[in-house]
Design goal:
single chain, 600 residues, alpha+beta, Beta-galactosidase, Chain A, domain 5, Nitrilase/N-carbamoyl-D-aminoacid amidohydrolase, 2 domains, 10-stranded mixed β-sheet, 20% helix, globular
């Protein structure tokens, strides 16, 4: 049995009524800044919304329906799941403390389809719609890496049956109402973004949908590359992929617009008997007895699709208040087999996307194999295959909308030895820069030409830099990056295929910790997992290891760079003086007892 409760925070105002079971009703009173009013519908599991400026329209929302789509393993810990409890609590407190928030909780009991879990929706009316925070709490069973649930943004008009009209009666946005009045070809009111351009979902009463980049990743993984034609509880026929999870509808005059967006949306769908828009949202990757929070937003205002897009970008893209970056540091047994390396890379890119990473980092020479360990002679190397596989990885980065740091060997012209490079690939699938390993070991120099430049780039307002392996031995490189204002440094290694008692696992990570603490950097370290090796590390600016993977086995380390978080940094007051050559703190004095260093 599902127990549904709802509460509203208006100076802790809470109104409860019971209806033939366990159901609590309440409503919010919109503040002066929002024209939208939310209340629980008479039917279990639905809310209904009205807008003071858009009379005779009522939009519905269904919180829970149908069966989840499950894939992957359940994480063992919050660290493994990359759950930031502090940020989640901050968000939840922000919504709880808002005076006009509508709160709804769905208690889901264990049955054949579901594991026991609680969902709490915080819905805060604002000027252009309703901001939503969903928290998911697990009990003795966690949720796997992908746990797709359908969220229903309910529209419809007089053509719907009576019980549906009580929840949602939106003649302005109802495609079915429009089609009843139209003659000839049907007109679609539903829009999605493809290649940064608004496109319509075709006007058809059958359920149609599209995959987001996350949806492309998870469907490829769960079908082993044979993407299914239909997805979701209504068997939505998949159209071309979309840029993100925003799905919108305009009225017939295109003067009003509505829509819904959820973070972690894998699929969007349009149409079924209730004339709805749907988001399939990944709420998974939660260990037992843990909690995760996901944000979304309903849009409803007088305007155009382009104005809605501007609102969306401000809410979820360019307008982010917190300088945070979700990263995936990958390890696998890098070898001289270019195709096998590429398969590992593409598989780990897809899993990184499913778990909401924005940047994926791979080890040194991850694609090409490493000269001297995997490659005996570049003279007979298959550069054409390397180029083809590089192109396929760039195309996947574009499909998944991912930043990628790809370790490879970069061919030079003539008789020049290649560079040992770390390519910087943007979400459009283009190499926009590349760091070439500056300090090659004496053995490396038999295979590689050293580089001569630094690489810096900005993501989400965070300034980042790149280094490779043996560079860790030269603190001057880190000081130069410090001068450039770096906040996060990504360093890729190939410290593998050594003896079990090798010194590298003992000295390399702690050396990187020192570099991080001395310069107040975040540092992400990746390495090959071929034995014997040491694993991926994520180091915070205080020099502490926040998390790491297990050694000698493939895996992905998910971490969050929060550049606005404060860390212990005792050298900060004097770091710039040191860089400028002043090698003490405070002011020195001229004193004979200071000058004579033989007395006491």
């Amino acid at each position: 049995m599902r127990v549904i409760s709802c509460q509203t925070m208006l100076c802790i105002l809470f109104i409860t009524a019971l209806f033939g079971g366990q159901k609590a009703m309440s409503q919010n009173t919109p503040d002066q800044g929002s024209p939208i009013h939310i209340e629980l519908a008479e039917k279990n599991g639905f809310a209904t919304m009205t807008h003071t400026g858009h009379q005779n329209n009522r939009i519905g929302y269904r919180f829970h329906e149908h069966e989840p789509i499950e894939f992957g393993k359940v994480p063992l810990s919050e660290s493994q799941a990359n759950i930031d409890a502090d940020e989640m609590n901050r968000l939840e407190d922000e919504y709880k403390n808002s005076s006009q928030v509508f709160v709804y909780t769905e208690h889901i009991e264990k049955d054949e389809a579901w594991v026991k879990q609680d969902w709490t929706f915080y819905m805060k009316p604002v000027k252009d719609g309703v901001e939503i925070l969903l928290t998911i709490r697990t009990f003795n069973q966690g949720l796997p890496a992908y746990y797709g649930i359908q969220q229903c943004f309910r529209l419809g008009g007089e053509s719907n049956n009576e019980w549906r009209r009580k929840i949602a009666n939106t003649p302005a946005f109802s495609e079915y109402e429009l089609w009843r009045r139209q003659s000839g070809d049907k007109k679609s009111l539903t829009r999605v973004m493809r290649n940064q351009t608004w496109q319509v979902i075709p006007a058809d009463e059958k359920t149609l949908g599209a995959r987001t980049p996350m949806g492309m990743a998870i469907d490829d993984l769960r079908t082993r590359g044979n993407l299914m034609l239909e997805v979701g509880p209504y068997k939505a026929v998949m159209q071309a992929p979309v840029d993100h999870g925003l799905i919108t509808r305009v009225d017939i005059s295109e003067t009003w617009v509505c829509g819904i967006y959820w973070q972690n949306t894998s699929h969007v769908t349009n149409h079924h008997p209730a004339d709805c828009l749907h988001s399939i949202v990944n709420i998974g990757n939660i260990p037992p007895f843990s909690k995760r929070a996901i944000q979304g937003k309903i849009y409803w205002f007088e305007g155009s699709p382009d104005s809605l897009l501007a609102h969306f970008k401000n809410d979820f893209l360019e307008g982010k208040q917190h300088r945070r970056l979700e990263i995936a540091s990958c390890q696998f047994p890098v070898s001289g087999d270019i195709t096998a390396n590429a398969d590992w890379i593409k598989k780990q890119m897809r899993w990184a996307k499913v778990q909401s990473a924005e940047l994926v980092q791979f080890p040194e020479c991850a694609l090409s194999g490493y000269g001297g360990a995997d490659i005996n002679d570049f003279g007979n190397y298959d550069w054409n295959l390397l180029k083809a596989e590089t192109g396929s990885i760039l195309e996947l980065a574009k499909t998944l909308k991912l930043w990628v740091l790809l370790g490879s060997s970069h061919r030079l012209s003539g008789d020049h030895k290649p560079h040992n490079s770390l390519y910087l690939v943007n979400p459009e699938g283009k190499i926009i820069d590349g760091y070439d390993k500056r300090f090659c070991t004496t053995g490396d120099l038999d295979y590689y030409t050293p580089g001569d430049h630094f690489v810096t780039f900005d993501i989400n307002g965070i300034k980042c830099g790149l280094l490779i392996c043996y560079d860790v031995r030269f603190p001057e490189l880190y000081r130069e990056y410090s001068k450039l204002g770096i906040e996060a440094l990504f360093q890729s290694f190939y410290n593998a295929r050594h003896r079990e008692d090798c010194i590298h696992p003992k000295i390399m990570p702690v050396t990187a910790q020192t570099r991080a603490a001395t310069n107040a950097f975040f540092m992400s370290l990746t390495n090959s997992s071929a034995p014997y090796s040491w694993p991926c590390y994520f180091i915070t600016p205080d020099g502490l290891v926040e998390k790491k993977l297990s050694a000698n086995q493939a895996g992905i380390l998910f971490s969050t760079i929060d550049a606005d978080k404060k860390y212990y940094d005792p050298s900060k007051p004097f770091r710039n003086d040191t860089i400028d050559g002043k090698l003490n703190s405070g002011e020195t004095v001229q004193d004979p007892r200071s000058g004579d260093r033989t007395i006491y």
